[in-house]
Amino acid sequence: MRVLGIETSCDETGAALYDDSAEGITSNQLISQVDLHAQYGGVVPELASRDHLRHLLPLVERAFVESPGKIDGIAFTQGPGLMGALLVGSAFARSLAYAWRIPAVGIHHMEGHLLAPMLVDPAPAFPFVALLVSGGHTQLIYAKDLGTYRLLGDTLDDAAGEAFDKTANLLGLAYPGGAALAALGEGGDPHRFYFPRPMCDRPGLDFSFSGLKTHALVTVKKHVDAETDFFKKDLIKKDIACGFEAAIVDTLIIKSRRAIQDTGARILVISGGVSANKQLRKKLLAFGCEQGVEVFFPTPELSTDNGAMIAYAGYLRLKRGQQDGLNFKPKPRWLLTELS
Ligand code: KG4
Ligand code: ZN
Questions:
Q1: Is the C-beta atom of 8 inside 6 A of ligand 1?
Q2: Which ligand is nearest to the CA of 297?
Q3: Does residue 273's CB lie within 6 angstroms of at least one atom of ligand 1?
């Protein structure tokens, strides 16, 4: 079965082809809108929709040039995400499927992230605990099977990626900033400035990251002003970035460890944009070795938003006989646990 996957939930336009009889993903095309939104310090929804509209068709054509041939179905991100952006992808995918007389299926964006590690060899198998860390979500999920997901923990305020982005902005780094903050923190001193590990001193699997961002702001204000020497200022920012990153990484690991203990799962899957973070990967792999838990990540390109994860999720759902009718309905708000 060959499936076209279309991703337009936020600021990345993705189109990919998945083929179960070939090597899996045979084309994975992506256009990022990061430069478009960077000047505003965050995603501007109207600009995002227009940019998806401009790039989607040429991107799909590029996918078919790289991997020609018929397809058996089309998968598109139905939610959660920005309403206008979701509408562009859904309307395009649904219309193309109608014209080509093939089935179309709407995919939950976070299910795409959750399944993305399965595109890498060796692939994880259900059941597992998934840590989903992106710009909009920080969740621990017990994934029993395809569509059977139990929410173990969620963020009470900012997502981990959001906290990375806001703190990066504070340090003068361009949006989205998570990867740039991690690069700035490389070689820094994680102990020079104290950063708390929020909600780790009480039971439960929920997260809270907004306090960390405020903590970073207070630290910057206390140690950096107009008089601070240029080199000293740079070093202070490096150490703040390093300490902040270590606090987020430690918190994610402490909660993942608890989730593994609570569920008895022996497999941990980490996905979403923040899973591209090198410190997080290194420390989670060490945790896995120490506890005898298998740890799986997608490749860095499959960690952030992409069409490949949507094509793959669509393939699994179409194979199960699922397809959507002609009435498509984008769902900007949609819980992963509502799936079946
Ligand atoms: O999954 P994703 O591409 O989009 C959403 O669905 O939100 O995640 C984007 C988030 C951004 O907040 C970005 O700063 C963060 O992932 N991110 C990182 C790294 N690479 C991307 N955060 C920390 N370290 C990284 N290396
Ligand atoms: Zn995402």
A1: no
A2: 1
A3: yes
The amino acid at residue 88 is: V
* Sign for the pseudo-dihedral over CA of 89, 93, 99, 105: negative
Query: Rounded distance, CA 274 to CA 284, Å?
Result: 13
Q: Is the CB of 165 under 6 A from ligand 1?
A: yes
Give the global pTM: 0.95
Cα–Cα dist 133/144, whole Å: 19
Residue in 133, 184, 270, 304 to alter for ligand 1 test, most ligand atoms within 8 A of Cβ: 304
> What are 268-309's pLDDT values in tens digits?
999 999 999 999 999 999 999 999 999 999 999 999 999 999
Give all strands (DSSP E) within the chain, no chain letters.
Answer: 2-7, 12-19, 24-32, 73-79, 104-108, 128-133, 138-145, 148-154, 267-271, 294-296
For residue 32, pLDDT beyond 80: yes
Q: In 10 A of CB 45, how many CB atoms? A: 16
Q: Ligand 1 centroid vs 272 CA: distance in angstroms?
A: 7
List the beta bridge partners of residue 109.
none
